UniProtKB/TrEMBL annotation:
<keyword id="KW-0560">Oxidoreductase</keyword>
<dbReference type="InterPro" id="IPR009075">
    <property type="entry name" value="AcylCo_DH/oxidase_C"/>
</dbReference>
<keyword id="KW-0285">Flavoprotein</keyword>
<keyword id="KW-0274">FAD</keyword>
<dbReference type="InterPro" id="IPR013786">
    <property type="entry name" value="AcylCoA_DH/ox_N"/>
</dbReference>
<dbReference type="Pfam" id="PF00441">
    <property type="entry name" value="Acyl-CoA_dh_1"/>
</dbReference>
<dbReference type="InterPro" id="IPR050741">
    <property type="entry name" value="Acyl-CoA_dehydrogenase"/>
</dbReference>
<protein>
    <recommendedName>
        <fullName>Acyl-coenzyme A dehydrogenase</fullName>
        <ecNumber>1.3.8.7</ecNumber>
        <ecNumber>1.3.8.8</ecNumber>
    </recommendedName>
</protein>
<feature type="domain" description="Acyl-CoA dehydrogenase/oxidase C-terminal">
    <location>
        <begin position="300"/>
        <end position="447"/>
    </location>
</feature>
<dbReference type="InterPro" id="IPR006091">
    <property type="entry name" value="Acyl-CoA_Oxase/DH_mid-dom"/>
</dbReference>
<comment type="pathway">
    <text>Lipid metabolism; fatty acid beta-oxidation.</text>
</comment>
<dbReference type="InterPro" id="IPR036250">
    <property type="entry name" value="AcylCo_DH-like_C"/>
</dbReference>
<feature type="domain" description="Acyl-CoA oxidase/dehydrogenase middle">
    <location>
        <begin position="177"/>
        <end position="267"/>
    </location>
</feature>
<feature type="domain" description="Acyl-CoA dehydrogenase/oxidase N-terminal">
    <location>
        <begin position="79"/>
        <end position="172"/>
    </location>
</feature>
<dbReference type="InterPro" id="IPR015396">
    <property type="entry name" value="FadE_C"/>
</dbReference>
<dbReference type="InterPro" id="IPR037069">
    <property type="entry name" value="AcylCoA_DH/ox_N_sf"/>
</dbReference>
<dbReference type="Pfam" id="PF02770">
    <property type="entry name" value="Acyl-CoA_dh_M"/>
</dbReference>
Length: 755
């Protein structure tokens, strides 16, 4: 018997059991999926920075590097995004053959099954490079290597299933897709009405126990061309053929699309992106039980399997595409701003251009830092569920801002569509990333903090499990142990937060990181403030916090900033503390600190318990939200990273797809290099108040060779500034090829007048 347990803890335990909201099976499975990692350190309020800095930087093997520099570059050279979009509405057939032959669909499949056996980081690098050449090709490659039959078979399939299906997926004999979303169930996948009834039936000439499936799925990427469909449905056993349970819950199975009753629908057109995507149906499709991934023992475990796989996949595919988009925006927008002149000077000199350009540059720096750090965890075998949610949400949202900024700076150049527009299709694709793999609104408001508070908190999950224990005495003992540890942790966090906030983090723990050391101190300060506010909010609101989505979103924003800023610091350290890159790091830190302070102020202003809100304000924000964001000096230095050829610019935008053709991006790269190399010549012309280079040669301002260099640069710039135009009959079938457009409208007017 324990005096503390029976006298102090027992009434708290009884009260907490009464107010703890019921947790559905799908919610519990989602919470239990994946792992915690650096997010758990951040939740302690006292992160161990040495642990972060010891994380091994992800690298490519020689084989992976050879693939990136060989087949990936070859694939990029085969891709013409405008032709894919405008003429074909699909990838060319030779591209389909190439990606199958070179095993792009089998990057994550182990070599023993015929795949490439690449690391998560290599997978990420491949998707990243292809994304800067073609969104359609990138999505086509990423889907088989993300959430789908391959990943699920590797993690949960039986040995027989792996030996049968993985080699076919690796070499492209089977093209996979995964059917989860249905008209009735989008973000709320648990409400799906797709069913699988366990029964006896004929399959390939023999009677077996299996499932009779009926489903309707939509938004399925690769669905129109898939030969193997991974399917999520709810399994039922009304005749108790496999046990005493009638409802088994969400289950996943493999469905060859040539089975009777499978109906492959027509294509969707997502935001004018032409990767294969569409609906499918199944009407009384019968499969044997051994088509359930993992066999009959995995009946009803589908949701947990999906969430576990998603914990890895969401950390790779869309973050890779988003980091690529931001880096591509930084490289193209910096180059365009450098070469484009208005009012006689480069538009890069305008502070109104510098501000969004700096935002693009810093976003590119931060997203790639976070991508690499997340890949480091995945390479180590960790599947960080909360961090993957943070990555999907913030990578796609920040890519959206970066692309919008790039469009604004480019102006009409990026608005007029055609083969020379290197930004327009990326801009159209942004909503796809925002929506798929969990809508960002849901992820921000419910998942990041909702899941993080339970999984990453040092004690909360143990307390919840104890409260839910059917054995009351055992639950009380476990709760007593976790609760008092939690109480001690909360008091330590209180004093940490108080001391660090009142001293502006001056004495907060930090590693010796040179110029970045003060940033670590501030993150230690904000981590303690976050942990204390989260604890007291959870204590006062309990299960009601689930319905306070705006509060949850603000906490999620702080946790996300703590992770993303940690990643930026880690990158700066791993790359050798490059002084030229420090401006990008400063911009990230100042902007992130401003967001954290703003969210803390919003939380304190909206906490229902005003006494607790007042107490927290005194502790964590006694002087109010004071961070204003990056200074003008930092903005100027950050923007300049993209404006000149340099090692810093190459570090910011590594391994993009560079194809030496006459496309818009290649033209821009050539013009940028020529303008940079002739900058000194152009300055001499301006100083002499001469615009014509031939006149400058005549006057002896420059040499003939220098004049020809300058002319080549100006010609290259003119080719970049050009935009596409089209004959009327190319854009619309209403115009006759033999009739001039003006004549067409004249004839149309005459016809109307006559009628």
């Amino acid at each position: 018997m324990s005096f503390r347990r029976d006298t102090l803890t027992k009434p708290i335990f009884s009260w907490a059991r009464g107010v703890l909201p019921a947790m559905s099976d799908t919610e519990r499975e989602a919470l239990e999926a994946g792992d915690v990692w650096w997010d758990a350190d951040l939740f302690t309020g006292n992160p161990d920075w040495s642990k972060l800095l010891k994380v091994r930087q992800p690298t490519l093997t020689d084989e992976e590097r050879a693939f990136l520099d060989g087949p990936v570059d070859e694939l990029c050279a085969m891709l013409d995004e405008w032709k894919i979009f405008w003429e074909l509405r699909d990838l060319p057939q030779d591209v389909w053959h190439f990606v199958k032959r070179e095993k792009f669909f089998g990057m994550i499949i182990p070599k023993e099954f015929g795949g490439l056996g690449f690391s998560p980081y290599a997978h990420s690098e491949v998707v990243r490079k292809i994304s800067t050449r073609s969104i359609a090709a990138a999505v086509t490659v990423m889907v088989p290597n993300s959430l789908g039959p391959g990943e699920l078979l590797m993690r949960f399939g039986t040995r027989e299933q792996q030996q049968r299906w993985l080699p076919r997926l690796a070499d492209g004999r089977d093209i996979p897709c995964f059917g989860l979303t249905s008209p009735e169930a989008g973000s709320d996948a648990a409400s799906m009405v797709d069913t699988g009834i366990i029964c006896k039936g004929d399959f390939e000439g023999r009677e077996v126990v299996g499932l009779r499936l009926n489903w309707h799925k939509r938004y399925i990427t690769l669905g129109p061309v898939a030969t193997l469909l991974g399917l999520a449905f709810k399994a039922y056993d009304p005749d108790r053929l496999v046990g005493d349970q009638e409802e088994h819950g969400i289950t996943v199975a493999l469905i060859p699309t040539n089975l009777p009753g499978v109906e492959i629908g027509q294509r969707h057109l997502p935001s004018m992106q032409v990767f294969q995507n569409g609906p499918n149906r199944g009407r009384d499709v019968f499969i044997p039980l051994d088509y359930v991934i993992g066999g009959k023992e995995r009946l009803g475990q589908g949701w947990k399997m999906l969430m576990t796989a998603l914990a890895a996949g969401r950390g790779i595919s869309l973050p890779s595409l988003s980091a690529a988009g931001a880096a591509y925006a930084a490289r193209t927008t910096g180059a365009y701003a450098r070469i484009r002149e208005q009012f006689g000077i480069s538009i890069s000199k305008f502070e109104g251009v510098e501000e969004p350009l700096a935002r693009i540059v810093a976003t590119a720096y931060q997203l790639d830092a976070a991508r690499r750090l997340t890949c480091a965890a995945l390479n180590a075998g960790v599947h960080p569920a909360v961090i993957s949610g943070i990555m999907k949400l913030h990578a796609t949202e920040r890519m959206r801002v970066a692309i919008d900024d790039a469009m604004d700076i480019h102006g009409g150049k990026a608005v007029i569509d055609g083969p020379q527009n290197y930004l327009g299709n990326l801009h159209r694709a942004v909503p796809v990333g925002i929506t798929v793999e969990g809508a960002n609104i849901l992820t921000r408001n419910l998942i990041v903090f909702g899941q993080g508070a339970i999984r990453a908190h040092p004690y909360l999950l143990d307390e919840m499990n104890a409260l839910a224990d059917a054995d009351r005495e055992r639950g009380l003992t476990a709760f007593d142990k976790a609760f008092w540890k939690h109480a001690g942790h909360s008091f330590r966090t209180l004093f940490r937060a108080l001391g660090r906030s009142w001293t502006f983090g001056a004495f907060a723990p930090a590693p010796d990181a040179g110029d970045a050391t003060p940033f670590y101190r501030q993150l230690s300060r904000y981590s303690a403030a976050f942990a204390l506010c989260a604890d007291l909010t959870l204590l006062t609101l309990g299960g009601a916090l689930k319905r306070k989505e705006m509060l949850s979103a603000r906490f999620g924003d702080i946790l996300s900033e703590l992770y993303l800023l940690s990643a930026a610091l880690k990158r700066w350290q791993d790359e050798g503390r490059q002084k030229e890159d420090f401006a990008a790091l400063e911009w990230c830190m100042a902007t992130g600190f401003k967001t954290i302070e703003s969210r803390l102020a919003e939380i304190l202003a909206n906490l229902p318990n005003r006494f607790v809100a007042g107490f927290l304000k005194v502790v964590v924000q006694p002087f109010g939200a004071r961070v204003l964001g990056p200074s003008d000096r930092v903005v100027h230095r950050c923007a300049s990273l993209a404006l000149e050829p340099s090692a810093a610019r190459e570090r910011l935008t590594p391994d993009l797809a560079h194809v030496d053709d006459d496309g818009g991006f290649a033209r821009l790269e050539r013009a940028f290099k020529l303008v940079a190399s002739t900058d000194a010549i152009a300055k001499r012309l301006r100083a002499a108040r001469v615009r014509d280079w031939k006149e400058a040669v005549t006057k002896g301002v420059i040499t003939q060779a220098e004049g020809e260099q300058l002319a080549a640069a100006r010609e290259a710039v003119a080719k970049v500034i050009e935009v596409d135009d089209f004959a009327p009959d190319v854009l619309s079938p209403i115009y006759k090829k033999t009739v001039n457009v003006h004549q067409f409208f004249q004839e149309l007017g005459e016809q109307r007048a006559a009628s």
